[in-house]
Amino acid sequence: MAVKPRGTFLRSGKVKDIYKLDEEHLLFYFTDRVSAFDVVLPSTIPRKGEVLCKLSAFWFETLGVPHHMVSTEGPNMMVVNRMTMIPVECVVRGYLYGSLYDRLLKGEVSLPVDRVLAAKLPEPYFDPTTKSEIKDEPITEAEIVSEGRMSQFELDFVKGSTKSIFWRMSQRARDSGFILADLKLEFGRRNGTVLLGDSIGPDEFRMWPADRYAPGRSQDSYDKQPVRDWLTGAGYKEKLDRARKSGEPAPQPPVLPPELISLVSDRYVHIYEVLTGRKL
Ligand SMILES: Nc1ncnc2c1ncn2[C@@H]1O[C@H](COP(=O)(O)OP(=O)(O)O)[C@@H](O)[C@H]1O
Ligand SMILES: [Mg+2]
């Protein structure tokens, strides 16, 4: 990307690079990096960073909840108010999928729903986790309060806010032909108030094309599925699983073919345009 970020480099996430502008402000630089099966690939996806930045900005502007965004800069940068992050990932799920499905099968949670993969839950389920560099673990609401992660008052607010954001985003998705399956939000504190933070993009939610939805099997995710499928077909997934089983580091992933890269790039642009009604 042409425009260089400013500020002092703080850290690199899987997708965002974070810079400190001053004591009060951070700059998020959304890169074109892509990961699959939790491995960052050597190829990048043109315009992905721009889509993630502008999609996040769209949600902050339209959700109608207090948030940390100050402005966007260039195609892929966002200035935010620096906050003290609340050490809880606020996950909400509308469908039985991912780790919730696994936990239900293992009897770790009980839910009034048939054990069918991708079944719709009777109502959105607040399913918070800890915020960890290694692996986020489920945490109960009682533990959140007793461990001092949030006061009961903050928890009530954050839970209500998470559910209402999920509801609004679901409606938007439905109008665009998608199902919002689940969502992860992060909140932080600033000057005594709790604000919505971080970013809201395809790494923070699962959206499924509604016309291909069928319970009882894994669902096509609109964005990175072709990358996952290609890596599986190329034998990389198998190699990775074998390495992980024997505790070895992830093997070097292959470079993606140019046709696949442009197909995935087009998908990102497409989802942005249908969800927002804006042209990229
Ligand atoms: N306004 C904010 N102030 C301070 N930290 C923030 C703010 N918004 C988000 N963060 C934190 O910044 C980090 C983003 O990094 P990370 O999630 O690792 O990046 P990526 O999503 O690219 O993997 C998270 O730890 C998140 O909690
Ligand atoms: Mg993140």
Structural commentary:
This protein is α+β, with helices and mostly antiparallel strands and 280 residues long. The chain has 2 domains: 8-81, 2-Layer Sandwich (Phosphorylase Kinase, domain 1), CATH 3.30.200.20; 84-212, ATP-grasp fold, B domain (D-amino Acid Aminotransferase, Chain A, domain 1, 2-Layer Sandwich), CATH 3.30.470. It is built from 7 helices and 15 strands. The strands form 4 sheets. The protein has a 5-stranded antiparallel sheet. Helix 1 (48-63) runs parallel beside helix 7 (258-276). The protein starts with 7 loop residues before the first strand and ends with a helix. The mean pLDDT is 95. It binds adenosine-5'-diphosphate and magnesium ion. Residues 13-16, 18, 26, 68, 80-83, 85, 186, 188, 197-198, 203 line the site of adenosine-5'-diphosphate. Magnesium ion is lined by residues 13, 203.
List the helices and strands and how they pair.
Elements: E1 8-12, E2 16-20, E3 25-30, E4 33-36, E5 39-44, H1 48-63, E6 69-73, E7 77-81, E8 84-85, E9 88-95, H2 98-105, E10 120-126, E11 129-130, H3 141-146, H4 152-175, E12 178-185, E13 187-190, E14 193-196, E15 205-209, H5 225-233, H6 236-245, H7 258-276
Antiparallel strand pairs: 1-2, 2-3, 3-7, 4-5, 6-7, 8-13, 9-10, 9-11, 9-12, 12-15, 13-14
Helix pairs in contact: 1-7
